[in-house]
Design a protein that fits this description.
Blueprint (H helix, E strand, L loop, with lengths): L12 E2 L7 E7 L6 E7 L5 E3 L6 H11 L20 E3 L15 E2 L3
Parallel strand pairs: 4-5
Antiparallel strand pairs: 1-6, 2-3, 3-4
């Protein structure tokens, strides 16, 4: 007999529950259309998102927020630097149709 245990993931917390304002920018890329996403909440310091959960849906929303159009791919890597920056959010989760990363959810931490 084999026993399988499943764990239901905790629900995402709406970003708007923890911040009123969010600014994002691209940095570290070779062109103005690539790089790491840096973010700042309210009057806080610039930081980056933890790579857990970052995918093409989150990139689509970030590109839309930056006015860059559509993101076809994303990388969860430190190729664009930022590994020594503060992680300001973890487990970001978007559906892809949000207007801003502030409309997405994140893991409670």
């Amino acid at each position: 007999t084999t026993t399988t245990t499943t764990t239901t993931p905790k629900p995402k917390v709406p970003m708007e529950d923890v911040a009123n304002d969010m600014n994002i920018r691209l940095a570290g890329g070779r062109t103005e259309n690539e790089g790491r996403i840096e973010m700042k909440f309210d009057d806080g310091e610039w930081g980056v998102a933890c790579g857990d959960g970052w995918g093409v849906r989150e990139a689509i929303v970030a590109c839309k927020q930056l006015g860059l159009g559509y993101a076809a791919a994303t990388m969860s890597t430190s190729i664009f630097g930022g590994s020594n920056m503060t992680k300001v959010v973890s487990g970001l989760g978007c559906r892809g149709n949000e207007e801003s990363l502030l409309d997405c959810g994140h893991d409670d931490f």
